[in-house]
Specification:
Layout: H1 42-56, H2 66-80, H3 100-138, H4 142-145, H5 147-152, H6 158-162, H7 170-183, H8 192-200, H9 212-215, H10 221-244, E1 251-254, E2 257-260, H11 262-275, H12 281-297, H13 302-314, H14 318-331, H15 336-345, H16 350-363, H17 368-377, H18 381-394, H19 399-408, H20 412-425, H21 430-439, H22 442-455, H23 460-472, H24 479-492, H25 499-511, H26 515-525, H27 535-549, H28 553-566, H29 571-584, H30 587-600, H31 605-617, H32 621-634, H33 639-652, H34 655-668, H35 672-684, H36 688-701, H37 706-718, H38 722-735, H39 740-752, H40 756-769, H41 774-786, H42 790-803, H43 808-817, H44 821-834, H45 839-851, H46 855-868, H47 873-886, H48 889-902, H49 908-914, H50 924-934
Antiparallel strand pairs: 1-2
Helix pairs in contact: 11-13, 12-13, 13-14, 13-15, 14-15, 15-16, 16-17, 17-18, 18-19, 19-20, 20-21, 21-22, 21-23, 22-23, 23-24, 23-26, 24-26, 25-26, 26-28, 27-28, 28-29, 29-30, 30-31, 31-32, 31-33, 33-34, 34-35, 35-36, 35-37, 36-37, 37-38, 38-39, 39-40, 39-41, 40-41, 41-42, 41-43, 43-44, 43-45, 44-45, ...
Pfam families: HAT_PRP39_C, HAT_PRP39_N, PRP1_N, TPR_16
Protein name: PRP1 splicing factor N-terminal domain-containing protein
Organism: Ophiobolus disseminans
Length: 936
């Protein structure tokens, strides 16, 4: 056998670590955190690998050998070359400096960065500010929540601070007493009878004992109901008091500690007295205990004594109330409310009340309220004057006392002397100066107001009163100068009030009859704090609307007058001015404004038309023709002017002149509207051939005019040429496939000819060409309903409401013709929820109430429909029919005047009557009556 050892029995090489080739350096177990044994160091590994390589005659491995170390050092050097220049190594280690081009490049990049940052800074800051505002609004700080309460503490007087009750040591006392009782408590064994009773407490006994009535244990349901009612009343009163937030009573009890809000309790007592109801005895006793506790806790609480005295008075114990308030006067001699209550309670004995008032004034000579109470106690005017003079001697700066003394004086000379003394003593009172000027003569009043302006240079009311004085004496031409001086003086004193406040003052002057002063105020101040741009016009127009809505038309007229003189070329301003004069002015003022308007804006078509129409309605037919002639010179070839001229001549019965206008218009302003107007005029005059010729000529020029196609078919229909009419409608449908009226006329004509299938096909084609059109769907439903095919009508209605869920016409058709009477009201409610405001639905609801004989509600819904859309003629038709049966003659006259002003044009029934050539040139009243006869 060989003497070589077995491999497994050979000793491990020096510094051998198992798994070293795989990167292992030891192992860690759960019992000891750390390597099992420390591996060889780097130097040891290098020596070992070098020794092995020497034995084998090979180079050392690069993993740990010298080559790797040299490579690592080379890589470190390569990495060091690209270090930061500030470290002064690598490429920049030579210490060379930047040149001027580098500095310029750095500066340019810096400017670009600054500019980009500045461009986005405004939006970024606005966004950050908005986020901060939203966060602060959603998460307010405690100090912000109580900021208003902190500010309110600044108005608390010394007496109110002194009247605050002391907290005391009631809570600590209760806690110590409770702990003492627990320490001295003893425990006893519970008897079996108590355990048995507790076990049986949850059982339900259905037997009735015959001795219950005699034993007095019968349940008194009346007392329980009364107690519940009393508790409910208490909760309601508490909710009413606390819900208002003002004058509520707050009473908190914790053991024997009680806090009462005396002022709130006073208010509650006043409410009880005003209601005149009897207060329950238990409530009075409970309140008495609370108030007596509050008074005992703080003997200097004046409002507490007042509340307790009023409680006793409410309970009928007036003598006790006087004793309580007397004790309050002794304990709180500086409390004004206590002395006032004492004087009030003793008014049954004037002598005692005067003694109390004298004592109160002696202790509080500067309290004008007590002096006023003392003056009221006097019986004669002389005695009241005497007390008032004494009061003024002690309080010469009190404006109320001066007013009281002046009101007690009857002689006008003495009144003026007192005013002179009062203004001398209290020179900063606007009220005294203005009242002095009112009672003085006109010349003296001017001097008084001049002195007032010197005394109070920041007062705007004195300047306004100076204007009113000049208006009253007839010097209206001075008002504008006075107001201009006023504005300059107030600006100099930094006392210029807001323009909204000036408008309010103007409205007050108008209410009191000084209209010229109101206009002067508007002229001088309406542009205050507004920039000279177009926004002023919108602001002034809005001001005029708001002022006129409050009934101050002179102020609104002054605003629009200034706006029209400032924005001379603004058609909007002149139109608003004309509307104001039309509704709240005279005919002369309206025509004057329109004359100025057309002179300022000669190219405004609307102003010329308005001017001509209002002149015609005023009865000046020749003047209206002259105005139209002037408008033709300014706007030659304008079709609206020609059509208006034709309407005027037709109303006047001058058909030849109307034809001449239309002929001129066809030559100079050939439009489809002019041709249509010419054909309609001939159709109304029964000149059917000429009307057809005009339609043909117009269609040659304007083949896409659906109105002309419809008129041509209607002319053939009137001539009983139904086939030609059908051909005209068919041609129109092909020329104007998006016109629903042509489809409706064609389908109705086909239905009249008996071709219901063709009519149905026409409407189907129309719905495909014009989707989601409520009129076409409604016509399809009506076609099936007229044919007696109710199931198909219901099916079509269901599809139609899916296509047009907000169509009031469809809902009205469904409710009135496809629903039973019992289902009409629920269906109307559903329709109103989906279609919020539609006059047709309002009319349907009114008709439902009318059928139920609920006439008040029916009238209300008719008025809603009319006020919502006065142009919807069917609402007027059904309302007039309703009034014909259930209204008065006065109401019908009122409705007739309103419909004449409204001149409605829409509505299925109204249009069918109004556009009939037979009804041409009929009045609104005649058309209304014809439509009522046609309504179902």
């Amino acid at each position: 056998m060989s003497g070589r050892r077995d491999f497994l029995s050979m000793p491990a090489p020096e510094n051998y670590v198992a798994g070293l080739g795989r990167g292992a350096t030891g192992f860690t177990t759960r019992s000891d955190l750390g390597p099992a044994r420390e591996g060889p160091s780097e130097e040891q590994m290098k020596q070992m690998l070098a020794k092995r390589a020497e034995q084998l005659g090979a180079a050392a491995p690069s993993a740990y050998g010298v080559v790797a170390v040299e490579k690592k050092e080379t890589e470190d050097e390569e990495e060091d070359r690209f270090q930061d220049p500030d470290n002064e190594v690598g490429l920049f280690s030579s210490g060379m400096n930047y040149d001027k081009e580098d500095d310029e490049a750095d500066r340019i990049y810096q400017e670009i960065d600054d500019k980009m940052d500045k461009r986005r800074r405004a939006r970024r800051e606005a966004r950050e500010q908005q986020e901060r505002d939203e966060y602060e609004a959603n998460n307010p700080k405690i100090q912000a929540q109580f900021a208003d309460l902190k500010r309110a503490l600044g108005g608390v007087s010394e007496e109110e601070w002194a009247a605050l009750p002391e907290v005391g040591d009631m809570t600590g006392k209760q806690k110590r007493a409770r702990e003492a009782s627990r320490a001295n408590a003893r425990s006893y064994a519970v008897p079996d009878s108590v355990l048995n009773a507790a076990a049986k407490s949850g059982e339900l006994d259905t037997s009735i004992s015959s001795n219950d009535a005699d034993s007095g244990t019968m349940t008194n349901f009346a007392s329980i109901g009364a107690a519940q009612q009393s508790a409910l009343q208490v909760r309601l009163d508490s909710a009413a008091n606390t819900g208002g937030g003002v004058g509520g009573t707050q009473t908190a009890t914790s053991g024997t500690a009680t806090s009462v809000d005396p002022k709130g309790y006073l208010t509650s007592l006043d409410k009880s007295q005003l209601q005149g109801g009897e207060v329950p005895v238990e409530d009075v006793n409970r309140a008495r205990v609370l108030l007596e506790s509050a008074v005992r806790t703080n003997v200097n609480n004046g409002p507490g004594y007042v509340a307790l005295a009023r409680l006793e008075e409410l309970a009928g114990k007036v003598h006790t109330a006087k004793k309580v308030i007397q004790r309050g006067c002794e304990q709180c001699p500086r409390s004004v409310v206590v002395w006032e209550e004492a004087i009030r309670l003793n008014k049954d004995s004037t002598h005692n009340a005067k003694i109390i008032a004298a004592n109160a004034i002696k202790l509080n000579p500067k309290q004008t309220v007590l002096w006023q109470a003392a003056i009221e106690l006097e019986q004669t005017s002389a005695a009241k004057k005497k007390v008032a003079r004494q009061a003024i001697d002690h309080n010469p700066q009190s404006v109320n006392l001066w007013k009281t003394l002046i009101n007690l004086t009857e002689e006008i000379e003495n009144v003026r002397l007192l005013f002179a003394k009062a203004t001398e003593t209290v020179p900063l009172s606007e009220e005294l100066w203005i009242s002095y000027a009112r009672v003085a003569e006109s010349d003296q009043a001017q001097q008084i107001l001049n002195a007032a302006r010197r005394a109070i240079p920041t007062s705007s009311n004195i300047w306004i009163h100076a204007c009113r004085l000049q208006e009253q004496i007839g010097k209206v031409e001075l008002l504008d100068k006075i107001m201009q001086r006023a504005v300059k003086a107030l600006i100099k004193e930094n006392a210029m009030i807001k323009r909204e406040e000036w408008l309010t003052q103007a409205e007050i002057c108008e209410e009191e009859g000084d209209k010229a002063t109101a206009a002067a105020i508007v002229k001088a101040t309406i542009g205050w704090s507004l920039d000279e741009d177009d926004e002023r016009r919108d602001v002034w127009l809005e001001d005029s609307k708001s002022v006129s809505s409050r009934g101050h038309f002179e102020t609104a007229r002054a605003i629009l007058g200034l706006a029209s003189s400032t924005f001379v070329l603004s058609t909007t301003v002149w139109t608003a001015f004309a509307e104001l004069e039309k509704h709240h002015g005279t005919t002369e003022s309206l025509l004057s404004v329109l004359e100025r308007a057309v002179n300022a804006c000669p190219n405004s078509e609307s102003l010329w038309l308005t001017f001509a129409r209002e002149t015609w309605h005023a009865g000046n037919v020749d003047d209206a023709r002259i105005i139209l002639g002037r408008s033709f010179e300014q706007l030659p070839g304008n079709e609206n002017l020609y059509t208006r001229a034709v309407d005027f001549e037709v109303d006047a019965g001058n058909m030849e002149q109307a034809r001449a206008f239309l002929a001129t218009a066809r030559e100079s302003a050939a439009t489809d509207r002019i041709y249509l107007k010419s054909a309609v005029l001939e159709f109304q005059l029964s000149n059917y051939e000429e009307a057809l010729d005009l339609c043909s000529s117009g269609l040659n020029l304007f083949p896409g005019s659906w109105k002309m196609h419809a008129l041509k078919g209607q002319i053939y229909h009137a001539l009983s040429k139904l086939k030609e009419a059908q051909e005209a409608y068919s041609t129109g449908v092909r020329a104007a496939p998006k016109a629903p009226v042509l489809y409706l006329l064609l389908s109705r004509l086909q239905e009249q000819l008996g071709a219901v299938v063709k009519a149905r096909s026409t409407l189907d084609k129309a719905r495909s060409q014009i989707p989601k059109n409520g009129e076409l769907w409604c016509e399809s439903v009506q076609l099936e309903r007229r044919a007696g095919n109710i199931p198909s009508a219901n099916k079509l209605m269901a599809i139609a409401l899916q296509e047009c869920p907000t169509s009031g016409l469809l809902w009205a058709e469904k409710i009135m013709h496809l629903e039973s009477r019992t289902q009409r009201k629920p269906r109307a409610l559903e329709a109103i929820k989906k279609v919020e405001k539609d006059p047709q639905l309002f009319v349907v609801v009114a008709r439902i109430f009318w059928a139920e004989r609920r006439l008040d509600k029916a009238s209300t819904w008719f008025l809603k429909a009319i006020s919502l859309d006065s142009d919807f003629g069917d609402a007027w038709v059904y309302y007039w029919k309703f009034l014909s049966e259930h209204g008065t003659a006065e109401k019908r006259e009122e409705v007739l005047s309103k419909i004449t002003m409204a001149e409605p044009r829409h509505g299925p029934i109204w249009q069918s009557v109004n556009k009939d050539p037979k009804n041409a040139r009929k009045s609104v009243e005649e058309i209304l009556k014809l439509a009522v006869a046609k309504a179902e």
